[in-house]
């Protein structure tokens, strides 16, 4: 870490050494293959503007826009503002226009898609844009015949999409764990906790988007594997359940510390990363080799170690930024106090008769009174801020001590827990005590 910070020509410690395919890399490789085919006079494109790989990439992008619009539409409620409703309506209209363009291009490359659209039973008379089926090769399957190369292109892009979605999911799970830790350890007060919850909600939305993207990619990969005859794809891309979406330090519901296990998204590394270029280059067709889908224990350990190393480096960088922010705020507080001292002295200097040009004594007295009033206000502000910030240096010192010695933090948490426990016990003890007997008057005894 330190070597890279001093010399950024060194290997970047914040990047995983274990590479996984990305959609951008696959699209670039497909474009290069298309360029090589054009050089030898082979052109599979039926349009001057959209090639087969561009068509499939466009369909996957539209699918992502459909998921995004569905999430945005689901966030509306009866009392949504007009601005929110307008934003959703505009995005819906834009997606509708894109869908019209998409189906015109799809009909060019897969003419039978028009027949499938007519056969598709309409559940609604006017379906929303995110409910429209795109009829990608993975959705067509074996219903009608089409160019199988389109299915191979989609398989390569879906493979990268699944890996990319898992990577985004892992990163945001670690970010969420860090945010929860910071919130529980350091944040106090309604304002700070509200901001923290908003940040956590933003990260949670990214986690949900990555989850939906992986699940959709997996469904498409299984359909394409059945169409292309690939084996063991269901073993390479496991089903992503809600219980699997947790950070490294988070246990499954119902598991204790002694039985806690990592989710498969951290333990499962597919050995295809070592031969990704071979697979994506089309040198491996038909059966996916066994060494591509089964990961060894050593490869899994390397992946987990790399992930922990990168996440530790990011946590270290965040901690350093937090320390810098504390230093900046502390310096701003000191400068604020010094400014008010200087400003009060400056106003008193302006009230000195030697610095006044007016010849009237009454005028001199008025200027001096005004200057004294301003100086007094500056002094009052200085004293008020000094009182409010009196305990800040000790809080910063104790926080630094806890960062250097984590056992102090756990001791403080244990003391807070014991105090809360005593308070709760006292409340229950007081409420369970029998009420004292009500004294009776002498008249009641005589009546008895």
* Helix-strand makeup class: mainly alpha
Query: Roughly what percent helix?
Result: 55-70%
Order of helices and strands: HHHHHHHHHHHHHHHHH
The number of helical runs is 17
Question: What can be said about the biggest beta sheet?
Answer: none
Please give a handful of descriptors for the protein shown.
448 residues, mainly alpha, 17 helices, 69% helix, 0% strand
Topology at a glance:
Layout: H1 2-6, H2 23-39, H3 52-74, H4 82-109, H5 113-119, H6 137-140, H7 148-186, H8 190-228, H9 233-236, H10 264-267, H11 276-280, H12 290-293, H13 297-350, H14 361-388, H15 392-404, H16 406-432, H17 442-447
Your description of this structure?
- There is one protein chain.
- By secondary structure, this protein is mainly alpha-helical.
- Helices cover about 70% and strands about 0% of the residues.
- It has helices at about 1-5, 25-40, 50-75, 80-110, 115-120, 135-140, 150-185, 190-230, 235, 265, 275-280, 290-295, 295-350, 360-390, 390-405, 405-430, 440-445.
- It is elongated.
- About 20% of the residues are buried.
- Mean pLDDT is about 80; it is low at about 270-295.
């Amino acid at each position: 870490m330190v070597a890279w910070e001093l010399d950024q020509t060194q290997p970047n410690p914040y990047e995983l050494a274990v590479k996984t395919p990305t959609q951008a890399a696959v699209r670039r490789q497909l474009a290069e293959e298309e360029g090589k085919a054009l050089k030898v006079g082979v052109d599979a494109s039926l349009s001057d503007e959209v090639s087969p790989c561009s068509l499939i990439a466009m369909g996957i992008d539209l699918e992502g826009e459909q998921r995004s619009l569905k999430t945005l539409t689901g966030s509306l409620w009866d009392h949504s503002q007009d601005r929110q409703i307008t934003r959703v309506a505009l995005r819906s209209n834009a997606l509708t226009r894109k869908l019209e363009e998409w189906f015109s291009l799809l009909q060019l490359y897969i003419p039978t898609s028009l027949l499938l659209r007519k056969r598709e039973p309409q559940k609604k008379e006017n379906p929303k844009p995110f409910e429209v089926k795109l009829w990608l090769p993975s959705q067509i399957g074996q219903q009608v015949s089409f160019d199988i190369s389109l299915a191979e292109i989609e398989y390569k892009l879906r493979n990268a999409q699944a890996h990319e979605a898992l990577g985004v999911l892992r990163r945001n799970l670690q970010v969420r764990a860090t945010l929860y830790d910071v919130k529980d350890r350091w944040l106090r007060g309604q304002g700070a906790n509200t901001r923290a919850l908003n940040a956590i909600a933003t990260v949670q939305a990214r986690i949900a988007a990555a989850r939906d993207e992986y699940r959709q990619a997996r469904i498409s990969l299984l359909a394409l594997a059945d169409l292309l005859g690939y084996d063991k794809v269901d073993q390479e891309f496991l089903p992503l359940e809600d219980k699997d979406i947790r950070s490294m330090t988070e246990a499954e519901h119902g598991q204790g510390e002694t039985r806690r296990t990592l989710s498969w998204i951290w333990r499962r590394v597919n050995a295809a990363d070592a031969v990704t270029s071979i697979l994506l280059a089309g040198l491996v067709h038909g059966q996916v080799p066994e060494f591509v889908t089964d990961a060894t224990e050593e490869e899994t350990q390397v992946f987990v170690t790399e992930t922990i190393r990168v996440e530790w480096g990011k946590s270290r960088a965040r901690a350093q930024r937090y320390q810098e922010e504390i230093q900046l705020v502390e310096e701003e507080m000191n400068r604020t106090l010094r400014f008010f001292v200087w400003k009060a002295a400056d106003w008193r200097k302006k009230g000195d008769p030697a610095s006044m040009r007016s010849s009237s004594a009454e005028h001199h007295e008025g200027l001096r009174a005004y200057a004294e009033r301003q100086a007094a206000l500056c002094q009052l502000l200085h004293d008020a801020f000094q009182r409010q910030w009196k305990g800040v240096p000790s809080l910063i010192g104790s926080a630094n001590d806890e960062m250097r010695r984590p056992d102090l933090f756990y001791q403080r948490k244990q003391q807070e827990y014991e105090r809360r426990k005593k308070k709760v016990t006292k409340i229950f003890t007081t409420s369970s005590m029998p009420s004292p007997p009500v004294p009776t008057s002498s008249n009641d005894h005589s009546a008895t």
